[in-house]
Amino acid sequence: MHKVTFKFENSEDVTVFAAFGESLLEVARKTNVAIDAPCGGNGACGKCKVKLMGGTLDSKKTSHISDEEYAAGWRLACISKIIDDVEVLVPDIASAYKSRMKMADLSSAEEVKIFEELKEQIAEVGIELKNNLEVIDVTMSAPTLDDTMPDNERFSWAVEEVTGMDKIRVPYSVIKKMAHVFRASDFHVKAVIRKTGKDVFVYDVLPASEEPVVAGIAIDIGTTSVSAIIIDMLNGAVLAKGSAGNGQIRYGADVINRIIESGKPGGREKLQDAIIKETLNPLILNMCASAKIKPAQVYRLAIGANTTMNHLLMGVDADPVRMEPYIPTFFKTNSLFASDIGLKVNPDAHIILAPNIGSYVGGDITAGAFVSMIWNKPEFSIFIDLGTNGEIVFGNSDFMMSCACSAGPAFEGGDISCGMRATDGAIEAIKLDKETLEPTYSVIGDPGTKPVGLCGSGIIDMIAELFRCGVINPKGQIIREGRRIRRDEFGMGSYIIAFEEEAGSVKDVELTEADIDSFIRAKGAIFSAIRTMLSYCDFDISMIENVYVAGGIGSGINMGNAIEIGMFPDIPVEMYHYLGNTSLAGAYAMLYSTEAERKVYEIAQNMTYIELSNVPTYMDEFVAACFVPHTDKSLFPSIQ
Predict the structure, then answer these.
(1) Closest CA to 556 of 583, 574, 578
(2) How far apart are CA 65 and CA 61, in angstroms?
(3) What is the C-alpha to C-alpha distance for residues 347 and 336, in angstroms, rounded to an integer?
(4) CB 271 within 8 A of CB 89
(5) Rounded to the nearest 10 degrees, what angle do helices 513-536 and 618-625 cross at?
(6) Phi/psi of residue 351, each to 5°?
């Protein structure tokens, strides 16, 4: 056995023992050390770079590591074998998906504005902002030698009197605390209940002197990142907000790699633990601490996630999702509770899953389509969700069509050597001086935060600026020279956004030609999917009146830049509207409003799914779109 020490820039060392010949990445996974590996650990992405500080690793040089980097000790964890005691530095960019969990400061009006505006929109369309959770006062007569009715029956009779319902359901979690709570409060208590037309379910009992908090959590589980909010279920107020990387990412950046990993021995449990134990439970505990409430006071959750994420969350076999004829275990289910999957909230908390409508169009899209409100508008609109998969909904109040394209993880920082999710240290907007090529950028975080990498909105700006300044040609190849242009021994170019001394990491922040190629393919997938879907429906781009863009890839997308690189159709910029994280907003609506929950189910039921792989013209459209802006320049007249 050999001693392996993982060192970090901003946290304590982790030391473990590993067998001779073990992969360094596998050792990290078993030890719960976060090292990003979007390709699943096959050496294809180069994201698992670590720096050898001491000892020896059996590790070959790859195209992802230059001669200078290799000499300085940089290695890929996935192809490095343990042959000696070693010390390795895990740079911030490699562990940012987990180490940069973020709690929002809700003193800022901007953090809660989106949810307040959503409540107004929901009310305007006539949907009632109300759910079936409430708090009731329950007074019981104290037992005596002449009145020996057991506590649970005494309580049920009293609840019947208050609610007028004759079927009262009291779970074990409440029964086991009855004796103490009833006697400590002289049989005058408050009860947190769910009241339906059929029965009353009791979630909790508390002394009458306590002011109960009835909380719920809305969650967006993305393939790359997770966002969540805690709300007061009685008034819809946002109590806390948080985000983190999806711990599953070290098993692959895309859903296919994760499904394959889940099919290996013990894989399903590993993927479920990565999202629940490593991601959701720590995030929930941090948010509860921020909101100053107990996790047991969370009585309901609503989740927006794609079809694969829903299956992996529940520990359900996801393999049929990727195998023809692509039939998942479920599109919707109402049978999931917190205790079923080990979420650290009230054990009887019901989990609402936004319904999926296809193997690759999930609940995050049905929730997002609800928020976009295109189902309530007569004009033709497009809703686009930018993530690891690019999902698109087209329609109006009469019909809706949907499709999905494999954009890859580029919009969320995957497949990009300096890519990262939109959190502290991420460059979210950038401009270049056309003459000197010197950058000016804004970084997420407190003033003075140094850049670590690029998030999605920053990558869009970067490609647009490089093209506008003549640094890259339509194929994405670097054709200019300068202080910030670097080439490796093979002539492969890269642009240095921040030199090591300017960066918040241990190396330069740079965008390579390989990164640019990955992003061009991602943006090509989006544009070709839009064109194919419209053509399939016998529509033209000129008939579109609104485009709603969603995705937590930064504080906002520069729509002009997105058009200029050929990602979006060349229509007036004022027709574009950035909505942010609509999956989270939709989950919030389903959580707080029972009527909104029903509407999301209705939207899913009425939406038609198109499988792009069955449309003969799609691949031709995709190939044509893999240039900046496009091979057919007539599609982008304003760029001319």
Answers:
(1) 578
(2) 6
(3) 11
(4) no
(5) 140
(6) -105, 120
List phi, psi (to 5°) of 390: -95, 115
Helix (H, G, I), strand (E, B) or coil at 519: helix
Q: Is the separation of the CB atoms in 213 and 222 below 8 Å?
A: no
Helix (H) or strand (E) holding 311: helix 307-314
Residue 26: in which H helix or E strand, if any?
Answer: helix 24-30
3-state class of 329 per DSSP? coil
Rounded to whole angstroms, the Cα distance separating 428 from 407 reads 20
Query: Left (φ > 0), alpha (ψ -120 to 50) or beta: where does 445 sit?
Result: left
Count Cα atoms within 13 angstroms, Cβ side, for 241.
Answer: 20
Average of per-residue pLDDT across 9-37: 83
CA distances to 60, 90, 218, 369, 535 from 73, rounded to whole Å, are: 12, 12, 43, 48, 52
User: And the tokens for 299?
Assistant: 């009585």
For 501, half-sphere exposure in the C-beta direction (CA atoms, 13 angstrom radius) is: 0
> Is the Cβ–Cβ distance between 442 and 428 less than 8 Å?
yes
> How confident is the model at residue 113, as a pLDDT?
78
On the question of a cis peptide bond just before residue 629, with omega within 30 degrees of 0, the verdict is yes
SS (H, E, C) 113-161: HHHHHHHHHHHHCCCCCCCCEEEEEEECCCCCCCCCCCHHHHHHHHHHH
Chain-centroid distance of CA 476 in Å reads 28
At residue 122 the predicted structure's pLDDT band, cuts being 50, 70 and 90, is very high
Highest mean pLDDT out of 100-114, 176-190, 397-411, 488-502:
176-190
Place of tokens 């037309």: 197
Beta-carbon contacts of 22 under 8 Å, excluding residues fewer than 6 positions away, are 81, 82
- The whole-angstrom distance between residue 633's C-alpha and the CA centroid of its chain comes to 34
The beta strands (E) that lie in 140-214 are given as 168-169, 188-195, 200-207
Helix (H, G, I), strand (E, B) or coil at 548: strand
If phi over 0 gives left and psi between -120 and 50 gives alpha, with beta otherwise, what is residue 307? alpha
Q: Could you give the CA distance from residue 527 to residue 525 in angstroms, rounded to a whole number?
A: 6
Alpha-carbon distance of 295 to 587, in angstroms, equals 19
E-only strand ranges, 536-634: 546-550, 576-580, 607-609
- Confidence tier at 640 by pLDDT (50, 70, 90): low
Residue with tokens 């079923």, as numbered in its chain: 340
Residue 93 pLDDT class (50, 70, 90 cuts): low
pTM for the model stands at 0.85
**Cβ neighbour number for residue 259 with a 10 Å cutoff:** 23
Asked if 218 and 301 touch (Cβ cutoff 8 Å), the reply is yes
Radius of gyration for the chain, computed over Cα atoms and rounded to the nearest angstrom: 26
Q: What is the pLDDT of residues 286-340, one digit of tens each?
A: 999 999 999 999 999 999 999 999 999 999 999 999 888 888 999 999 889 999 9
291 half-sphere exposure, CB direction, 13 A CA radius: 27
In this structure, which amino acid lies at residue 330? F
β-sheet with 453-454: strand ranges across: 439-443, 426-432, 453-454
Nearest Cα to 229, choosing from 338, 168, 303? 303
Under DSSP, the state recorded for 3 is E
SS3 category, 593: coil
Q: What's the distance, Cα to Cα, between the start and end of the chain in Å? A: 63
Q: What one-letter code names the amino acid at 151?
A: D
Tokens representing residue 572 in the block: 């007036």
Whole-number Å distance between alpha carbons of 326 and 404: 14
